Amino acid sequence: MNSLFKRLPRNRLAATRRSSRRLHHTQPHPHPLLATFSRLCVEGPFRAALALLPDLASAGLRADPVSLTRLVKLCVRHGTASDGRLIHRHVADHGALSHGGGGGLFVSNSLVSMYVKFGLLDDALRLFDGMPERNVVTWTTVVAALANADGRKDEALRFLVAMRRDGVVPNAYTFSSVLGTCGTPGVLAAMHASIVKVGLDSDVFVRSSLIDAYMKLGDLDGGRGVFDEMVTGDLVVWNSIIAGFAQSGDGAGAIELFVRMKDAGFSANQGTLTSVLRACTGMVMLAVGRQVHAHVLKYEKDLILHNALLDMYCKCGSLQDADALFRRMPQRDVISWSTMISGLAQNGRSTEALRVFDLMKSAGVAPNRITLVGVLFACSHAGLVEDGWYYFKSMEKLFGIRPEREHHNCMVDLLGRAGKLNEAVEFIHEMSLDPDSVIWRTLLGACRMHKNANLAAYAAREILKLEPDDQGARVLLSNTYADLRQWTDAEKLWKAMRDRGMKKEPGRSWIEVEKQVHVFIAGDLSHPSSDSIVQELNRLIGRINALGYVPQTEFVLQDLATEQKEDLLKYHSEKLAIAFGTMHAMLGKPIRIMKNLRICGDCHAFAKLVSKSEGKVIIIRDPVRFHHFLDGACSCGDYW
DNA sequence: GTAGGGTTAG
To answer: Contact at 8 Å (CB) between A286 and A311?
Structure first.
């Protein structure tokens, strides 16, 4: 301890003595040292209060529990963990932990909490173990700490059980912190039942945690049920339900709830806006996203929110907006950079993505494993095999990131896309990790792309060994056979799928028109304006026929007559969406479409020609990447 | 002295 800390309290001590002399004859008062200590614990500075502990000890004085608790709180704010240990030692040595009337418990609880806040969970648990008595606060502090610690969720639940066995009834604090640890519907249901039993189900904190717990288990209805019972609510409860819908991919539901929230008189905060942006991102609702941008301006320091906005622009295919935002952002973290890199790569601008990666490095921001996924993705989608190998081989040395599963997967993709199928297989056989179904599926995708049925069958067998019910593998393999006109082999697989009751996921496309999302399903003409859509489709086909369009019926993977194939092709969901888009196109604005499956070659050719004949930019986002069609060409360079 | 909602890839 240096001299500064000793001098300060002495001066204050002198002042206190003078004032206590004046007061002496009017009222009784505690020892002046204790009075000073109490005052410093209220007003600070922390160091001055801390420095009084030895003086108290040598004078044989015992500080009151309230002041000690305040000191511990000051320590969390202004001190270090070793200051905290010092306080702990002092109170333990001088009997403060055995204060009567709950005082000792009060002080101990604050020390447990202090250790937790300094991240010293094991110290907290050691103190907890040695406590002669514990109340609901003690238990809750520890349960919450375990629930928030990585990989200790089971312990949190075990402590909850021990707590009840000890006769301590959990309160709203306990439940709201422990609900997030329910890993199965059964555990959650049991906990929900005990919450109802103790009458805590109307507490807003418990409610938001309950909603969140249901949503995290994918039980949208469960979350919705808790939400709908709501009599009193607050903004966080709204945010929980909106976040739940946004995260589980129900963007339309999230936006609907957002509108209801505003109607109910709540105004959005950063958390709300982040979730709403995520919903826009999922549904490619650029117009709604732009509206949200206007509200984001209020929170210029919120990096999470800005990153969500950036991602929204990237995933809506609006790179100009993303780029402008990225340049203007006051701070950028590794997530901002990674978002931009992946965004550029997915939009077919791999060279720029790699340039941004260089800029990131010169800006001194350390890449993480996700950044490198983006970098490798950029390489694989631009056919930059050499660069990909370079980054993969040097990432550990250069950035300290050991290649994980996802990076190996990128390499299989890189080699496979480039047609180096044998190298890809070799890579899988030689890698140190056990190949999982994702890796085999990547290989299978490449085999389909390059029409290699033998290798495709091998990859599919490996997938089915790991996941016997996987239908994606069967669909991809049968499509590969169909590409090669091996109808018997394809039919065998289709039959097997029918026998197992599997259905191919229908193609679906979305488009936002006047802030409404319209969904189109392949071959489904139930949209209210289907008649005019078909008319528009015929008009478009007429115009592009003049540019040399011939339906590429080889993309219909069934053994049908040519005419039937043409019909199936004509009503692919993205063609319906494109026709709807050209009907409602705004001057100078691109047509933006999202779809659930990869785009087929015929629709790709169709979109290229329509972009030329209509003079429109068409942007289609599939599950993996974007296609920007302009004047008869696509940003993917026909490589996808 | 104890508690709830948000961002990046595939």
So the answer is: no
